[in-house]
Amino acid sequence: MSDGANAILVRRRRRTQTAEPGTSRRSRVDGPLAAVAAVFTVAQLVLVRPVLGLGWDEIVYVSQVTSDTPAAFFSAPRSRGVSLLVAPIASWSSSTPLLRVYLALLSGVALYLALRAWRGLFPIRVLAVGGALLASLWVTLFYGPQAMPNYWVAIGALISVGCFLRARTQPSARAALWGVAAGAALMAWMRPTDAVWVTVPLLVLALVRRHWRLLLVLVAGLAAGAVEWVIEAYVGHGGLGQRLSDASRIQGGLGWQIAVDDQLRSLGGRALCRPCTGSMPHPVVTVWWFVLPVLAGLGLLVAARARRLGRTLVPLACAATAALPYLFMIGYAAPRFLQPAYALLAIPVADALWHLVRTPGRTWRPVAATLVALGLAGHLAVQIAVLESTVSRNTESRRDWDRTAGALHRLGVRPPCLLTGHEAIPIGYYTDCSSGATSGHNENTTVADVLRTADRLPVAHIAPAGGTPPRYARTWPVHRISDLDVRVAPPARRNNGH
Q1: Is the distance from CB of 270 to CB of 335 less than 8 angstroms?
Q2: Residues 202-230: what's their mean pLDDT?
Q3: Its domain of life (predicted)?
Q4: How far apart, in whole angstroms, are the C-alpha atoms of residue 152 and residue 143?
């Protein structure tokens, strides 16, 4: 019996000894990915800073789950994913810095998990550089800690495409199948239409190659993420077709419209380029955009020579379909729209960069490595410069909204209250007022409703200085606040109403 017990103990020790090096090896393998994610998180907190106030779109999403501010109008193109993402903080705290820190930490963890989904498909050094390339873009750093959907669509795209490729090579890998479904659900949860564009190549490939289980899992993930948006379409928008039509109208009518030049203009740090006029940014700001497809093509050539074409061709195809509607189907631009495409391009581009560094002969290898390093250093410097100017400009504009809110409070416009007119949604949020529009994309009330509200509550109309007010507000006393004309409904209306 003692010999048998000793043999069992010896076998257990051996299993423990063999397991520990494996665990250590996995930790060393994941180390570069974790380091990239950690640096990305810290960079957001240092460069963007948690004190940055909420922007217009963020206000729409966050106000849906806050208890102390009225919910802003939620238009047809929007999805509730971001609102649910911020609910663990925004539902009980109005602290913007706390929300920023939460989102920065969450986005860092998400980047790490997304890169891990590609383990085994590319060397770890390629994944680390690809993650660093994505994380160092000013648009990624700026929107990582913001309550916006596009970064999360990019993360979902990385997870679903990476796990899709792993599931093709390892049909029995249940974790990869779950990853496909989770990534697709995350994308559809955030922006259902973007999720469809990203996954078109995956759906076609699964269908052509008869990967029925993969096809089922992918469709199930998309359906799980989009089900709330579809239900809401029938409950509040007159059906799915009507909601899609309304979304297209709000976005200027989807169709053949070349927006490549608009996207180029937005690279200088414009959050929204609509209408997209003005001069192009300095060429040093846009050069990386032209280098990107060249490196992606080189990555495809490298993959073909290495006989691993599929794992590079699939993400490039998904990047192309993800970018297609924002380059050729809308009449305006925002740099965040292309975040899913950038994420999917990052790994093949990193593969190409490693090829440039390692392939030349011993004599030319240091030269190639130096040139690549200098190019990356210059690229990083440009991205940080654009980020700093973008953060500064947006910080000041959001402080303007806060100062306007303070001035409105001094004029007696205090909650409960209603604001209409120019920038009523963001100023209303900072003032703790409801916002209303009698026309336009955010139309949610009528003139009669505005006047009835003015009989009971403080109501103000906001217009650019010297602008023409609507007929219902022309007789209201006007006050100049910065570059705005604010007309406040006279208290007599409320007194007469009572």
Answers
A1: yes
A2: 96
A3: Bacteria
A4: 10
